[in-house]
Specification:
Layout (H helix, E strand, L loop, with lengths): L3 E5 L3 E6 L12 E6 L1 H11 L3 E9 L2 H12 L3 E8 L6 E6 L5 E6 L15 H5 L1 E6 L9 H14 L3 E5 L10 H9 L7 E5 H8 L7 H8 L6 E5 L4 E5 L4 E5 L11 H13 L9 H18 L12 H10 L1
């Protein structure tokens, strides 16, 4: 039995303009792509040869069943998925404008993912998780928030490593303060946390996200085993109780940055799940992060998140060239 990573949260349909560099208002044709960070990570781990499961809720509609099938095709255990008869699968319209910035427009009022209830959790599946991975979007609304907290408690009690990718989507929160409070509410329970530079600025209110002291004083907590800062094409920074450093990115020609962070997370988790004391050995950790950086780099060379998730062979190939 391979070590299992259980990813909890939202899965939705992203609609992306077929022409890049236009705003949502200017786009005339949209292509649909499966999305949702926790689901992307589950697929990423599976593509890399690992074992993963996804827990979350979609609508009892064509899009919901399509998403369940996509997970199955990618060898992700989808037995923890639930289908809501009253609410639809969430939709997001995302455009990459010519300046490289992303524009988001969400359709979820409420969408099925927000309505997962504690009673619908696949408890046995959660108990099998060697790593339990989640984001912050599932903390925004009830009843999903309570289900999220309950799932975390079950995982923690079963000895899982809790992995948290903040994945801030401000438009979905009632306010900036609510977002900060919600994101930080589970902070001290996570063993592994991944943030972006923008998220450091948002959470600490400090202008310089590169300041190690800011990270160590304001964000690093006593239970934390590994804190990761993704820096896009520049690579990533890492902090543990014993050491800290930076691993440079892998050079590629970017086409679409969607899913790069999720690919990075799936890269590091796929190594961590089979080498649970990774954060105690700096050399091994740096190798794993180089691998994770390569996963992120490969995703930006293709469109979409799930279709672009790389295999282990592709990652080793690009690392040979770099």
């Amino acid at each position: 039995m391979k070590s299992l990573v259980v990813c909890f949260g939202e899965m939705l349909i992203d609609f992306v303009p077929s022409v890049s560099g236009v705003s949502l208002a200017e786009a005339s044709v949209f292509e649909k792509a499966p999305g949702g960070a926790p689901a992307n990570v589950a697929v990423g781990i599976s593509r890399l040869g690992g074992s993963s499961a996804f827990i979350g809720k979609v609508g009892d509609d064509q899009f919901g069943y399509m998403l369940a099938d996509i997970l199955k095709e990618n060898k992700v255990n989808n037995s923890g998925m639930r289908f809501d008869h009253k609410a639809r699968t969430a939709l997001a319209f995302i455009s990459l404008k010519s300046d490289g910035e992303r524009e988001f427009l969400f359709f979820r009022n409420p969408s099925a993912d927000m309505l997962l209830q504690e009673s619908e959790l696949d408890v046995n599946l959660i108990k099998q998780a060697k790593i339990f991975h989640f984001g912050s979007i599932s903390l925004i609304n009830e009843p999903c928030k309570s289900a999220h907290l309950a799932a975390m408690a079950i995982a923690k009690k079963s000895g899982s490593i809790l992995s948290y990718d903040v994945n801030l989507r401000l438009p979905l929160w009632p306010s900036e303060d609510a977002a900060r409070e919600g994101i930080m509410s589970v902070w001290d329970q996570a063993d592994v946390i991944k943030v972006s530079e923008d998220e450091i600025t948002f959470l600490t209110g400090v202008d310089n996200p590169n300041d190690d002291n800011v990270v160590l004083k304001k964000l690093f907590h006593p239970n934390l085993k590994l804190f990761l800062v993704s820096e896009g094409s520049k690579g990533c920074r890492y902090y543990t109780k014993k050491f800290k450093g930076r691993v440079p990115g892998v050079k590629v020609k970017p086409i679409d940055t969607t899913g790069a962070g999720d690919a990075f997370v799936s890269g590091i988790l796929s190594v961590l799940v089979s080498d649970i004391n990774l954060y105690e050995d700096e050399k091994r950790l740096r190798e794993a992060l180089n691998f994770a950086n390569a996963c992120g780099a490969l995703v930006v060379t293709k469109k979409g998140a799930i279709p672009a998730m790389p295999t282990k062979e592709e990652v080793h190939q690009i690392l040979k060239q770099d």
